[in-house]
Amino acid sequence: MRYRIGIIALAALAAWFLPYGLDSYAIHVVNVILIFAILAIGLGLCMGVGGQVNLAQVAFFGVGAYTTAILTTKTGWGFWLSAVLALAATIAVGLLVGTPALRVQSHYLGIVTLGLALAFTNWVTNAQVAGGAEGISAIPVPTIPGVDLSNEYLYYYLELAVFAVGLVFGLFIVRTALGRRMRAMRDDALAAGALGADVPVLRMTAFLLASVYGGLGGVLYAGLIRYVAPETFSIANMFLLLGMVIIGGRQSLIGCVVGAAGLYLVRELLADHPTVAQIGYGTVVVLVVVFAPTGLAGLPKRIRDLVTRRRGGQGEAARLQPFQPYETVRPDESGSQSPILEVDGISMYFRGLRALDDVSLSITPGEIRGIVGPNGSGKTTLFNVISGLYRPTRGRIRFRGQDSTGLAPYRLARAGMSRTFQNLRLFGDLTVEENVLVAIDRNATWHSWRYVARPISVLRRDRDLHRRAAEVIERYGLAEFAALPPKSLPYGIQRRVEIARAVAAGPALLLLDEPAAGLNGDEVRQLSEIVRSVRDSGVTVIIIEHNMGLVMSLCERITVLASGHVIAEGEPAEVASTPAVIEAYLGDSMSSDDLPSVPEVTG
Amino acid sequence: MTTVSEPTTATTNVLRVEGLTVHYGGVCAVRDLSFSVPAGEAIGVIGANGAGKTSTLKAVMGLIPRKVGTLSFGDVDLTRVSARSMVRHGIGYVPEGRHVFTGLPVEKNLLLGAYARKWNAETRATLAEIYELFPVLGEMRGRLAGALSGGQQQMLAIGRALMSKPRLLLLDEPSMGLSPKLVENILEVLQRLRAEGLSLLLVEQNAKLTFEATSSCLVVENGEVAMSGTSAQLRHDPQVRRIYLGL
Amino acid sequence: MQVFFQTIIGGISLGAIYALVALGFSLVYRTMGLVNFAHGNVVTVGAYLASTFYLTSKLPFALAMFVAIAVTGVIGLVIERVLRPLENRDFDLMLIGTIGFGIVLDALVIMIWGATGRAVPSPVPSAPIDLWGIRIRTYDLVVLAIAAAATVLLVLFLSRTKRGAAMQAVAMDHEAATAVGIHVGRSNAIAFMIGAGLAALAGGLVGPLLYVSPALGGALGIKGFAAAILGGFGSIPGAIVGGIAIGVLDSFTAGHFQGYSELVTFLVFTVIIMIRPTGVFGERTVNRA
């Protein structure tokens, strides 16, 4: 920590005294670099942290610059008023450009944003008000009483201040609740939604952030160069910006800044040979994605990993500790036990295929319900319908007395439903602790206005979240893995992390999709203990499982599905002796003496 | 080393695997596994989900990174043979979950099974044999593979592997997701193939099917061989039940 | 009414070019699940190569095209070979890798041919045909014929040849394809090569229609990509329908909005994608998404 403060102080000192060593051309270059760094931070937040491919960052930059230019030259309003309005305009455009992200992702989003960026250049090259191909010149100098901002040395300090605030604010977001949630969404939007992260709002937030930084860059650019023209906001510059973020390391804001500075300097050094420079950075982009996908920022870690591997690893230091049971909560016997979940006549068709056909079930609070059935019988589909991933073709679902049919997964999660996934959907690039933190955080994303208005309360809340996460991690015996990415852990431990995460969300109803798959005998026993304890703490559990031994010993009631129908329901022993079940599972022709039979595997 | 059955010395068409280890993202999925499949024999590998069965098969095929001491088929050393060349050495592979080429017609799927060979009159003859073995595929030859039922896709996957005229067939969970009736069909097919002299390495969760289709078995647990023996012995072993149900 | 048809005719020939570009995108996407963002730049390279061989080396137009296609095919091979380590691993990174190649190709074009453009005279100089008052340039008919022929050849290649079937198999399941003995890398390389060849074909053909400049491919690439998505990414009929649709849309917006045509085209495209992300023939893409 002291080491870090030292570095920050040193960097601040260097930034403060930098102009003293530079000639007037060099300071101009530094000023432009700072603008690109601000743009790169915005792009890094949107693309690297939020996972939203945004090829319109250069257009946000342009909207900021052009609006400032138009307002100052055409209306005669002051620079600062125009700047504020320009920022507002950029945000509006940013939200507009981001809307497609609600429907499409990845390369589709890439092409849409790129198309909209082209639409912007097309507009400014043609519009009278934007000065056409000539652009707008003679933008007035921004004024601060007593400071001559036409002096580029002094302008540097203005930019430095904006940049520093921007960087700190960006880092603040990345390291606290909002950024964590954005990174979770980037790694796995489905799982993030199932944990209560409002994915649509988060995607818009990513674009909001990109546009704020884009607008700031634009305003500063208009004030610095005092001339705007379409080619500054061309696709070539968009790709330059992208190159900065990729080479620097898109998931690290510091990396984005380093990338921006480095790439711009190289381009400046090769200013006489722009095509050579372009070939150079294009090649570097290709090399980086192939050989160092995490960019410059990821290099130290890769080197460290390499060194530890050379030394033969640290051995098996981390150990899983035993689970500490929850305190038992006496179920409240007084009230009438109205069902917590009612599935009423659900049918689900996929292009003519009936995955579920008129399935009904009712779950009473406090029970552990098992759902079994051969592969392809519709168990996971049923979970997906209950948790809101699929909208059923027919039928209604009531959760805690409310009609929840067709509700978005994150709304159901907020209402108290939590689930795990058959194939483990942990956030791979987050640590175990962060995985749990995402689940604990129950605030709606729009609460993030506090980041601007009340940053201290955000920090305080984050500290509280960390404390609660530590409790969960301790309880599940994961303390020694807290700082590790789940990908590096053995399968059994990953399964436990996923359950810890689902329970950390504080659900009333917990859906477990094949929690024992891939676990060994001992781990299955521990799982059984965990599930029982979770139930005793007042959570209702529905469990899909193939391991019949586990289901038989754990569940009070079992529902058997076959080909999308409920073919039996009742207590374990009762169900196991139902002929229809034996037929579905074993098929009478092959049932023979004492052969073990686990009739299916994960799909 | 665990040998399922006594290796007949210097016979051709013996698959030998010694010291097979697979790491999956820091997790050891298969640990120092050794076994062999003698010519014309059927060997089973059973175990619970996640025990390392599929990894074993994929590692033998070279589809995933592995470490292996000895890997040979007959006189051919396979340690440096790439996955796509295995078929040229007489090894057919039926992947878990069938993995047919869903967007192509049934017949194209089968023909692609013979990709490594010239497409000629002989290929046509093999195709006719496959249609004879699986009449339903003949009826559906023009249909897209994705439109077939699970059972039909499984037959297609086996048929595709047979199109290369293999001497050893690796099968990964052919019973997966099939009704008992269809599992029985698969069993019949496997028994027939074995009768025709094809060696089989069958990886299965369905112990019943495996014991009936094979002569000896390995039981794997957590990437290691927990026990092995003839199928007849194992099917009555109470320990198998324990390993299997995790009780 | 006559104006209306004239606009449509005007859109169709450019639409055929978009369709060729879209076919290249779709083919590579279909086999590798990858969007090649350098595709547009390959179009530029193709256009310059074809025009250079045609104008400077005085080769016949057809031969010039042929040489251009061969050279860009090699460029496609190089791109695929370099990015091969990322195949079937990280498509977002591959996408950015292709953007990197695009940047390099863009600079190479400027380095070799300069920043200014050139006009290419039509290789078929006869007067336009007059059909019920609608004027059709003969070169437009040539473009349509070649585009149609290329599409038919591509479809035949995919459906009738062993290599074509193997390429599709790789797209559907690369592991199963490996197990039957298909060299996945080589198959992808061929897909990339054909994709680049289609780009060169589009670039060469568009030369006499538009002005050949370094910015040519950017515009064509993005519209071709829009066409591919509009039709349903990965679908061959989709690429054709999408290409023609974008061409006609372009032609109408150029007539009604003049300089703002690009703006309107992209806005319309954005709205369509939001309403129907999978495009017209887009069910295939569901597998990959």
Mean pLDDT of chain C: 85
Low-confidence segments of chain B = 1-10
What's the number of structural domains of chain C? 1
Please list the strands of the largest sheet of chain C in the order they lie side by side: 1-2
> What number is the mean pLDDT of chain B?
84
User: Strand share of the residues of chain B?
Assistant: 15-25%
Q: What is the correct CATH architecture of chain C?
A: Orthogonal Bundle
Q: How big is the Rg of chain B?
A: 17 Å
Number of helices of chain B: 9
Oligomer classification: heterotrimer
Give the largest interface pair and sizes: A-C, 41 and 46 residues
CATH domain fold name of chain B:
Rossmann fold
Q: Determine the number of helices of chain C (DSSP H or I, runs of at least 4 residues).
A: 12
Output the CATH class name of chain B.
Answer: Alpha Beta
Widest beta sheet: strand line-up of chain B: 6-7-8-3-9-10
Radius of gyration of CA atoms of chain C, rounded to a whole number = 18 Å
Q: H/E series of chain B, N to C? A: EEEHEEEHHHHEHEHEEHH
- What is the succession of H and E elements of chain C? HHHHEEHHHHHHHH
The largest sheet of chain B, given as strand count, sense and whether it forms a barrel, is:
6 strands, mixed
CATH superfamily of chain B: P-loop containing nucleotide triphosphate hydrolases
Intertermini distance of chain B: 27 Å
Architecture overview:
- Chain C: It is a multi-pass membrane protein.
- Chain C: The chain crosses the membrane at residues 6-27, 34-55, 61-79, 91-116, 136-158, 190-212, 224-248, 260-279.
- Chain A contains 23 helices and ten strands.
- Residues 586-603 of chain A have low confidence and may be disordered.
- Chain A has two domains: 26-233, no CATH class; 341-590, 3-Layer(aba) Sandwich (Rossmann fold), CATH 3.40.50.300.
- Chain A is 55% helix and 10% strand.
- In chain A, strand 9 (557-562) and strand 10 (565-570) form a beta hairpin.
- Chain A is elongated and about 90 Å long.
- Chain B has 247 residues and is α/β, with parallel strands linked by helices.
- Chain B has a single domain, classed as Rossmann fold, CATH 3.40.50.300.
- Chain B is built from nine helices and ten strands.
- In chain B, the strands form two sheets. Chain B has a six-stranded mixed sheet, with helices on both faces.
- In chain B, a hairpin with a 2-residue loop joins strand 1 and strand 2.
- Chain C has one domain (2-120, 136-288): Orthogonal Bundle (ABC transporter involved in vitamin B12 uptake, BtuC).
- A two-stranded antiparallel ribbon of chain C has the order 1-2.
- Chains A and C meet through helix 5, helix 10 and helix 12 of A and helix 4, helix 9 and helix 11 of C.
